């Protein structure tokens, strides 16, 4: 077992039930399709954790489905072809399957694309964090596993990826979940008062980490409920947000619970939407 694998396991123990663990033939089939060998540390990552996410934020693409595929990366290149032709300065790296191009291996729920720069030996490929919305790139001369370790330890520059909450550490295997984002105004007391009320309303809860930004109104709290719903409560200068993630069959219960909670915090409701921006729960 490599030292990097031992370190990431020490920081984040693998889940009790690992899902979608690739077999040797799965790696071989993926490499054959891509025409590239995959880095050994990435294989260790998927073999140890399977499909899921670190801290409800960072994830590696599984081999199953279309995530780590030739077609997905071709579509990525084709989708940027017009923009590259118009503003080539925004694309300092080639895109796979161009020689040495960026190849997707993971991402974050903030929309960062985690890529390898596929030049040289696979085990020496550096990681590039690409935020496609604003054409920002950050190059790290390390592999995927070392990159994740640095992120977990808060060693990455904050402009590359937001640091995780201090002392937080978990990996959650993939589940089929729906998400609802409740945008709110107002509120009783301060942030910690409202978090306490939320914990009481949804209790018992399990803390999943918190973080504080640079401003007076820039806080975030993560926790899970006895039903294993995942909840994030955020405060920022323009308002408040409750994000709740739940299995599809529990939407009615999740909706009833969160709709009964926000008035207890002194909030008024703006709207509720999905991650894709579609308004829901309007009746």
TrEMBL record:
Domain of life the protein comes from: Bacteria
InterPro entries tied to this protein: Knr4/Smi1-like_sf
Gene3D superfamilies: SMI1/KNR4-like
Protein name per the record: SMI1/KNR4 family protein
Organism this protein belongs to: Plantactinospora alkalitolerans
């Amino acid at each position: 077992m490599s030292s990097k694998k031992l370190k990431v396991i020490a920081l984040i123990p693998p889940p009790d039930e690992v899902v979608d663990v690739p077999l040797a033939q799965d790696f071989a089939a993926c490499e054959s399709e891509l025409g590239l060998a995959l880095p050994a540390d990435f294989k260790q990552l998927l073999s140890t954790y399977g499909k899921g996410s670190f801290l409800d934020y960072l994830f590696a693409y599984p081999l199953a489905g279309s995530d780590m595929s030739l077609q997905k990366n071709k579509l990525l290149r084709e989708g940027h072809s017009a923009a590259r032709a118009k503003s080539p300065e925004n694309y300092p790296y080639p895109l796979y399957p161009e020689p040495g191009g960026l190849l997707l291996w993971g991402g974050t729920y903030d929309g960062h694309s985690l890529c390898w720069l596929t030049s040289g030996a696979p085990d020496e490929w550096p990681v590039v964090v690409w935020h496609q919305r604003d054409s920002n790139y950050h190059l790290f001369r390390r592999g995927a596993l070392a990159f994740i370790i640095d992120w977990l330890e808060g060693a990455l520059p904050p402009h590359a990826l937001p640091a995780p909450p201090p002392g937080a550490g978990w990996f959650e295997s993939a589940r089929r979940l729906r998400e609802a984002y409740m945008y709110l105004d107002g509120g009783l007391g301060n942030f910690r008062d409202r978090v306490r009320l939320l914990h009481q309303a949804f209790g018992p809860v399990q803390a999943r980490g918190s973080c504080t930004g640079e401003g007076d109104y820039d806080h975030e709290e993560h926790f899970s409920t006895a039903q294993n719903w995942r909840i994030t409560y955020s405060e920022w200068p323009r308002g408040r947000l409750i994000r709740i993630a739940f299995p599809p069959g529990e939407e009615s219960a999740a909706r009833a619970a969160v709709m009964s909670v926000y008035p207890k915090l002194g909030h008024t409701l703006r709207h509720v939407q999905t991650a894709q921006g579609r308004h829901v729960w309007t009746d």
